[in-house]
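Re: weekly structure request thread

Next one in the queue (357 aa):
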Amino acid sequence: MAEALRKRFRNINFLDIILWIFRSAVIVAVIWGTVATFRNNRYTSEQWTDFVVFGLTQGSLYALIAMGYTLVYGVLLMINFAHSEFFMSGIFTATVFVAIPLSESGFFDLHPFLSLLLITVVAMATSAGIGVLTERVAYRPLRRAPRLVPLITAIGASFFWQYFFRGLYGSGVTAFPTVEVLTGTWSIGPIDITKVQGTVIIASVILLVGLYAFVMRTKTGKAMRAVSEDKDIAALMGIDVDRVIVITFAVGAGLAGAAGVLYALMYRQVNFFMGFFPGLKAFTAAVLGGIGSVPGAAVGGLVLGLFEAIGPNLFLEGLGIAAPYQLKDVIAFTMLVLVLMFRPQGILGEPLAQEKA
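Done, posted below.
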């Protein structure tokens, strides 16, 4: 009997017990804080609606940027940490060379939609160009190298582009012109949403749906999926692997450039460091949704944005924590850890032991 008890005791995994206790404690704290917040009734229904709308807006930006991470990872199995600089480079260049001159000449006020179209085209083209150049110079020679080598190279490329554009455009904050036609609000039933937020959400949905259709329905998209399965076999089937990888970088970076325009519309300022935190959050969103999955990156971005907007006020207010919005990053990354504890492959990611079809 004593020997059987000793064997059973040795088979207990104390790490699993600690993880179970941690998960339970966090879940209890979340439920307790949520219940206490609703009992205190500190926020009105209009304020909760504002939190949700802001979360969807922020999450839409995260989803667009996350597409670049998930596309590159799906094809090359590498984390492109320079992607945040692709996001920054496009809108910074478009602001300096297009937005500000058009605003100073008065063309922006006379033709706002045409001006925004020109800004978006320049931003997407610049971001795509920087992405393709980075892939050709920094990543392609290391394609057969161990995974750690391209990862370190990506970090170096990120710093290079960051300080390259700092030297090119300066280290100060550059103001993005106000778009008068997007000032004010839209009323959707009982919900009031600012025109900028509505524009960001609608544009993001259109771009995300377009990307999904491109990947799933076009010949190039099928080639991208084939290369993500096996590069060597795809090459034997007649697919130009280098061309597909270049297109992947161009598409991902172009979406980041479009996200940069939407970001500038919301926050109305750009600088050389603006890509760091959105890029970090977008990478988190890609992992949260299931890195390598296009729908997963979209869902992960929206979930992360909602957690950041609602979480501090919903979970922490009831626990008596002062200034909870300053802890939005804590909420976001705690939710990431919890999701990965219960589902390591992410929300829409494939099970880790399952072969791709």
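Strands lie at 174-175, 185-188, 191-194, 269-270. The two ends are 49 Å apart (CA to CA).
Next request, please.
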